[in-house]
Amino acid sequence: MAGVAGAKCKWVTVLYFGVARTTVGIHSETIDISDEISSSLSESVGEKSGNETVASSGDGIALNRLIEILTDRHKSVNMKKVFEICQWSVDLEMVANVESVLLKGGEE
Fold first, then answer.
1. Which is more confident, 54 or 14?
2. What is the pLDDT of residues 29-52, one digit of tens each?
3. Predicted local confidence at residue 31, as pLDDT
4. Residue partners of 52: CB distance under 8 A and separation at least 6
5. What is the DSSP string of 9-50?
6. What angle do CA 8, 52, 49 make, to 5 degrees?
7. How far is residue 79 CA from its own chain's centroid?
8. What is the edge-to-edge ordering of all strands in the sheet holding 60-62?
9. Reported pTM
10. pLDDT digits (tens, 9 = 90+) for 47-98
11. How far apart are CA 10 and CA 23, in angstroms?
């Protein structure tokens, strides 16, 4: 996605593979996370505890929050069950803990 030089990208691209792609019926989609980031500025959700989990902060949203957004977006095909068995990667790096990854925009 092209943008103005120096402008911060607030979009993430979601690529679907295997059963997720079959279930949702598309191979990719782009999600605007700007509103999620903005709303987290006014909430104190970015606390870390125990397992060093990250919710949302003014800098971005946690991957698990994006999964919630996608689940809600695709309710009609019950992606929640599919996402429970999925493995996740961000920018070609496998993710062990979806709560510990902060998405700032521009990721795939």
1. 14
2. 999 998 888 776 555 444 444 444
3. 95
4. 100
5. P-EEEEE--HHHHHHHS-SEEEEE-HHHHHHHHSS------T
6. 115
7. 14
8. 56-57, 60-62, 102-103
9. 0.76
10. 444 444 455 556 889 999 999 999 999 999 999 999 999 999 999 999 999 9
11. 26
Q: Provide the 8-state DSSP code for 101.
A: P
Sequence-distant (≥ 6) Cβ neighbours of residue 31 within 8 angstroms = 11, 12, 13, 14, 66, 69, 70
CB 62 within 8 A of CB 103: yes
Integer Cα distance of 107 and 89 in angstroms: 10
Token representation of residue 53: 């989990």
| Distance of alpha carbon 102 from alpha carbon 97, whole angstroms | 11
Determine contact, residues 68/59, Cβ cutoff 8 Å. no
Q: Which amino acid is at 99?
A: E
* Residue whose structure tokens are 């509103």: 35
